[in-house]
Amino acid sequence: MRELILIAQDTTDYGHDLGMKDGLAALLERLVKEVVRCGPFTGKTEGGLQWIRVMYAYPGCVTDRLIEVMSANKQILPYPDMPLQHAHPKTLYRMRRPSNIDWVHKTLGKMRAAMPGLAIRTTFIVGYPGETEEEFQTLLDFVGAMRFDRLGAFQFSFEPGTSSEPLGDPIPSEVKQERYERLMELQQSISLQVNQSYVGKTLDVLVEGFDNGISVGRSYRDAPEIDGLVLVEGKTKAGEIIPVKITGAMAYDLTGVYIGK
């Protein structure tokens, strides 16, 4: 095994029920020590567990201690998945989610300063009940300013029995679709520009398979099954992490060549 993925509805809440402070930071430190103690991690492309990925972390609970632990240990990938859901305070309030966007800016700024090359994934919902064109434009402006590496979007879907049920489903489906397309068009442009910045650089790639003369893998910027791929010329060994020089960029995927050990 090369990669361990920590997934929870909110990983930053780990240890809260046990009265722990900075529980996720403590867990990550323990995991890193166990990896080193057991001997598989060598810091090279060969070896055992080398990547620890954290998904579904909320910026309001990302502490300075957590940032310190993530930045100090190369086994912990500089890739947080933060499902922000929206960027307008009124929309977030109706969603019953934290609405302090200034805190989000501050937290992401700290993380980017501490971890150069930080890749941030997030998700947003468009067409939430009551979302005005002004609120949606705030979301577009936020995405344009933050320039997320990875972004997923969903159209609001009415579900009986949820906390949003009293709000109904007042926004027409064609408006939801139009907003979804505008958001994804913006993100596609951002993703392409960010990917192009990696051309000429070398990334470690976890090889997952081989097809039609191309090895298919993922970099630290790519969670399995939801993010992009790195397409490497020639056949390499599946399950290994190899250095790849990036030679081309598409909106979501990269291409490259294996440069040897």
Describe the structure.
By secondary structure, the protein is α/β, with parallel strands linked by helices. The chain has two domains: about 5-195, tm_1862 like domain (pyruvate-formate lyase- activating enzyme), CATH 3.80.30.20; about 200-260, OB fold (Dihydrolipoamide Acetyltransferase, E2P) (Beta Barrel). It has six helices and ten strands; from the N terminus they run E-H-E-H-E-H-H-E-H-E-H-E-E-E-E-E. The strands form three sheets. A five-stranded mixed barrel has the order 6-7-8-10-9. The protein has a three-stranded parallel beta sheet with strand order 1-2-3, with helices on one face. The longest helix has 24 residues, at about 175-195. The model is unreliable at about 40-45 (pLDDT under 50).
List strands and helices in order, with pairings.
Layout: E1 3-7, H1 23-38, E2 51-55, H2 64-72, E3 76-80, H3 89-94, H4 101-114, E4 121-126, H5 133-146, E5 150-155, H6 173-196, E6 202-211, E7 214-218, E8 230-233, E9 241-249, E10 254-258
Parallel strand pairs: 1-2, 2-3, 4-5, 8-10
Antiparallel strand pairs: 6-7, 6-9, 7-8, 9-10
Helix pairs in contact: 1-2, 5-6
